[in-house]
Structure formats: structure tokens, C-alpha cells
Amino acid sequence: MRVLEGSERDELLATLGWWVEAGVDTLVEATPRDWRTPPMRVETREIPEAAPEPELVLRASTATLPAAAAATTIAELRHAVEVFEGCPLRAGNVSTVFADGNPEADLMLIGEAPGAQEDRMGLPFVGPAGQLLDRMLAAIGRNRTSTYITNVTFWRPPGNRTPTPAEVETTMPFVRRHIALVRPKAIVALGACAARALTGDVTGIMRLRGQWRTLAVEGADYPLMPTLHPAFLLRQPDAKRLAWADLLAVKAKLDAD
Prior knowledge:
Oligomer: single chain
Radius of gyration: 19 Å
Strand content: 5-15%
Order of helices and strands: HEEHHEEHHEHEHHEEHH
């Protein structure tokens, strides 16, 4: 077996780290083989989701829930999020990245967390992944005036890492109240982190995507479609066909209503 060294090894490690961060968490094959030979039948396994940290879950119940419940408008909810100090992610960031688009739209997109460009501009999905998202929306006749866009966390995690389950737990009451105030006809969860936060299902995103779920929030049911995050699609353009199929399903549902 050839041993990787130097930049080749670093590049491989960076690639593997990116796949994990993008939500590709299913091990397909544990041992290398000659890909010129016929494929073998292999078992797959899911990486278990870490449990939320008790201290932060307590903060969510004692601080986030009352603050979220008290908001009766989008403006009040934005203010509640901006002054909230119960999530450690807010420390060191430039902006609270709340939302973009039309809060009266019938389509709501929920992603993972802001990145560096989003933190600087105070808007979600404005970097390369956001530019791809705009093109994806245009392909089904949508734009930011006919869509509402937010994330499950409102502050950039250090180094653009994936938010921890505990960090997401502290902001989910705001997210659920956000949904209740917008009352969209359909929700799209962009990527593994958002899909898990909204559905509670720790299944890998490749298995979650493309299947309608029902999300119950404050006595109302919302159709929810998990799909692949645009950042993942930038690195895996072959997967765009999967996201395209998901978007067509979303368009068909909205057109039918």
C-alpha cells in the first residue's frame, strides 16, 4: 500500500473533512480495492449523532423558548434573536444573520449557518453557495422576492465548521417560531444539519433527500423537503441532478396548491 505524504496527504485530509462537513456521513466501503474489478456488496453504517450538551439544552428551555414565544411579528423575532446571548456562537461575529427574501413568500428555505461572507454582509447565502442557490431558484422560476431564506443558526461557527447539536438546540425555538410566523406552503431543508434539526432524523442526507416529510409547528403541519446543500453541489456537481429532482418536486407541490 502506498503511503501518502506531504501535500498529497493534506489534500486528502482536507477533502475528507469537507465531505463530513457537507453531511456525507455514510461509510460506503471501509477497505480499498481495485475499481476495475466488479463491485462488491458492502454494508453501510451511519455516524451516530452526538447528544446535545445538557447545559446548553437548559439554556434553550430557560432563555430561548420565552424569547421566541413572545415574538408576534417577524420584526420582533429578529430583535429577539439579535439581543439573545444564550448561544456561544454569537461571540466574535460581525453580524446576526437573520434572513433574506420575502417573509410573505410561500416557499421557505432553511440552511445550516452563515459563512464568512454572510457574517460580513449580514445576509444568508451570499457567497459562492448562495450564488448557486440563486441559479437553482431561477431554474424553477423563483428568486429572493418569491422565496424566504434563513438558517437553523444565526451566527457563523468558528472556521465555518458545522454547528454542534447543542448550538442548534439553543436556536431551534427561534427557528420554529420563525416558521410559524412565515407560514410557508413548503419548506426546503438545505443540507444534513438543517434536515436533522428540523426532522430529528439522523439518517444521512443522501437517504433523507427527495422524500417529503411533515413538520408540525405550533398546531400547523408544513411539507418539508430535505435536499443537498449548495456548498456540497459546488464540490460534487454530479449531484446537481439529485437536487434538481428535489426542486422539481417542490415546484410541483407549490403549483398544485
